[in-house]
Amino acid sequence: MAAPRLIVLAGLPGVGKSAIARILAERSGAVWLRVDSIEAALLQAGIPRSFETGLAAYLVAQTIAEDRLRAGGDVVIDAVNGVEPARRMWRELARRGPARLVFVEVTCPDRAEHRRRVEVRESATPPLPAPTWEEVLHREYLPWNEAVLSVDGTRPPRENAERIERHAV
Questions:
Q1: Which end of the chain is less congested by CB atoms within 10 angstroms, N or C?
Q2: What are the start-end ranges of the H helices in the chain?
Q3: For 68-86, how does the pLDDT look when each residue is reduced to its tens digit (9 = 90+)?
């Protein structure tokens, strides 16, 4: 039996990660873990928004992902994953799993379209507010130090999901 897949989507807010993640989960039966949804649940519980709530959301996603991988199921992670500690978390999880790790960077090379998406979207996860364009521009997002699959978020999400599935075989 093949090892389960850990598909980790990364990219700035508004590039199209969630649309792709939803399709991947629907098509494969994978568990879709959206870190923003987890952080919103922490805020709904009355925990004040802070660096720690964001970190806790990643750790909750990691714990649930580990349970799913150990049960033999695929997982799709939907988060910015802009810094090395977040990326390292998924590498270590895949080693422990064991799971086939696939990093996918979703970009939106059309800056005007990216800005439009950020400015028109409402928060999908109240009480977590949607980021402003200024916050997206100043978000820490480091270059990758390893090969990752890059997909263009201006392409149709279904097309991107199919490309990821072909890559993650």
A1: N
A2: 17-28, 35-44, 51-70, 84-96, 111-120, 133-137, 157-167
A3: 999 999 999 999 999 999 9
